[in-house]
Write a structure and sequence with these properties.
two-stranded antiparallel sheet, six-stranded antiparallel barrel, 3 helices, 124 residues
């Protein structure tokens, strides 16, 4: 076990579960050709989890992000070790309506396994 796992391993997940809101992480699947229908399908996996959503600050804007984006810190224990991709989506409620936020950029902080994720996403 690496030093970062020993020191911070469970801290991010505990804080996100305590202070986060309920949301759904939709992990896009791998495109598969269905030989019977002749169509290409991309099955998605829906993972309910908790996450913290905050607005993007001016100093966090990059060539990929803009001020109207949001920063999402999801529970790393639910996400697992597979990296978050730009085809993935987060769904959460805000002011009584469901927000669908597409991943623009994802940073993963690792030890032996994912310790934390910080995701920049664009609400649709």
């Amino acid at each position: 076990m690496s030093r970062i796992d020993k020191i911070f391993g469970r801290t991010a997940g505990m804080l996100v579960r305590k202070f986060g809101i309920s949301m759904v992480f939709v992990r896009s699947g791998v495109a598969e050709y269905d030989e019977y229908t002749g169509e290409v399908e991309t099955p998605a996996t829906r993972l309910p989890l908790k996450g913290v959503v905050t607005p993007v600050k001016a100093d966090e804007v990059s060539e990929l992000t803009q001020l109207t984006d949001v920063k999402i810190i999801p529970d790393p224990d639910v996400i697992g070790s597979e990296a978050i991709q730009v085809d993935d989506v987060f769904e959460y409620d805000e002011n009584g309506s469901t927000v669908i936020a597409r991943v623009v950029e994802s940073k993963q902080f690792r030890g032996d396994s994912a310790v934390a994720y910080i995701v920049m996403a664009r609400p649709q």
